[in-house]
Amino acid sequence: MHPCRVLFICTGNSARSILSEATLDHLGQGRFVAYSAGSKPTGRVNPLALEALVTASIPIEGLSSKSWDRFVASDAPPLDIVVTVCDSAASEPCPVLFGDFVRTHWGLADPAAATGDPAAISEAFRDAHRLIMHRILALLDLPVETMSREALKQALDRIGELGDGDSAEVAA
């Protein structure tokens, strides 16, 4: 499993999955290849998601809101891990994708749904990206290349339970 191919999916593919894709691609440095998609893509990346990435010095070139249809086509890249990032606690429907990969859920409130003044909305994007960064760093600490599917699934599920201040020790 090298590089490990990870798809982040949510409904709109405008913020959370985009933040996750760009962060893992940047920090994974070729060890991971990240993708993102949505079940009902908005067709545009939220500018505040791009701002959060730029603030973190993460490249934004090539990011786009796209349908998960491209990942079920016959010429789709093979996937090792699929992560849903919708917020099931908010009764937001999570997309389901079928295939031979490890599935996990890293629920995260949608910063694009934040309300209030512009500063509060920007803070929601920064908070979401901080949590994503925390979880991505925990993923990078895993020896995914040598883990069994079962151990990887358990470790990924534990990462999805991490809050921003939680310890990131999740290795099996």
Automatic annotation (TrEMBL):
Keyword vocabulary terms for this entry: Arsenical resistance
Highest taxon in the source lineage: Bacteria
Q: Which GO terms describe its biological process?
A: response to arsenic-containing substance
Query: Locate the Phosphotyrosine protein phosphatase I domain: which residues?
Result: 4-142
Does Membrane appear among the keywords? no
Recorded protein name is: Arsenate reductase ArsC
The protein's matches in Gene3D superfamilies, at most eight in alphabetical order, are given as:
3.40.50.2300
CDD domains from the entry?
LMWP_ArsC
The keyword NADP belongs to this UniProt entry's keyword annotation: no
